[in-house]
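Fig. S4 source data, part A: sequence.
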Amino acid sequence: MPIRVLVVDDSGFFRRRVKAMLESDPRLEVVGEAVNGTEAVSLTGKLRPDVITMDIEMPVMDGITATRRIMQISPRPILMFSSLTTDGAKATFDALDAGAVDYLPKKFEDISTNREEATRALCERVYAIATQGRRPQRKSVPPPRPATPPPRVSTSTPVARTATAPITAAKGVKLPAHGSVKLVAIGTSTGGPVALQEVLTKLPGNFPYPLLLVQHMPGSFTPAFAQRLNQLCAITIKEAEDGDPLTPGTALLAPGGKQMLLESRSGRYCVKVIESDPGLTYKPSVDITFGSIARSFPSQTLAIILTGMGADGREGCRSLKNGGSTIWSQDEESCVVYGMPMSVAEAGLSDAVLALNEVGPTLAKV
């Protein structure tokens, strides 16, 4: 039975284009089209599609409001189409806060200059989030972004917890021995923005380790994403710049479109940000970052693989595991797409498999 898709966009040309691309894949069927958010909410109730593609800017009701209402009334996976601009990034993160699970550039040329590759990427993304999302995916919407940044937490004050989030570590997980961890590295892709927010907001301001974050994301999005996380979290989060040192309680986010490495300079460890090989699929790549970490901290890293398509991170985790580091992966049930964590778990590299809401509290206890 094909995946049933509702296409939402105020542009008739764009709807026709998306429909043609989706229906080129026999696994997918477009069952309806909506020209604004109000129609999207109504048709969702009538057609009960498996997945929705949603524009952000529309008349009558915008895509963010429509997403929020759909997730309240009839939750299902929603894929946003976004412009790759600073304003587009902010709107996209608002849509993810509202309950969308993922996004793609509205200009398909930004996915690939090859039409067939862009079509394949769109179809694979829709199929992946729909098949994983028939539960539906999102069991709860993350807490809304505060209007003003929360105050920084002092080293003697525990991080604030949300009322709906568990505050206990996962049972049965053997934590790394005291003193055996010097760095925490996290890699993720599809569903990662929400997953990273869920994990990092559970860490206290006095978290004793530096963190390196790799999220598959365009270069125009990572500055806004780092700023957003920094407003929400007790730890400090910034987009990595070449030469940034490893600092306890600070997370460095790999810049989109580039690669982030770890190296030693003048007796201290810092990140090296370089242009990416045009032929590489992932920019940034979890494998590349984790591989460089394995050369510097082969036995003193806690690496975590969260939700995402594909297998990026598996070989980097293999290098870290061979050196004696600890590997955690997210479980299937809480993933938006169980690809990257599955590749690590099935390779026998995971020391622990955790639900998303267990990762942050457990990490806080390391």
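Fig. S4 source data, part B ends here. The chain is about 35% helix and 20% strand.
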